[in-house]
């Protein structure tokens, strides 16, 4: 299985999206005292995921 740069950017984007969703859910469901911080970090992961997805096809 050959992975080119676009495939790597796609997988990285998907993994970062999953980590962001997991961090937000962890903050909302388990650590309610720190939910705002967890949400900010999760949104940061979403932003990086979006940037990697935007780079697909341009690298």
From TrEMBL:
NCBIfam families: CAL67264_fam. InterPro entries: CAL67264-like. It comes from the Bacteria. The keyword Membrane applies. This is CAL67264 family membrane protein. Keywords: Membrane, Transmembrane, Transmembrane helix. The chain crosses the membrane at residues 7-28, 34-55.
């Amino acid at each position: 299985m050959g992975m080119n740069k676009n495939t790597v950017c796609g997988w990285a984007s998907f993994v970062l999206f999953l980590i962001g969703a997991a961090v937000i859910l962890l903050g909302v469901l388990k650590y309610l005292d720190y939910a705002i911080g967890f949400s900010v970090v999760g949104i940061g992961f979403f932003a990086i995921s979006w940037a990697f997805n935007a780079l697909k096809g341009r690298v």
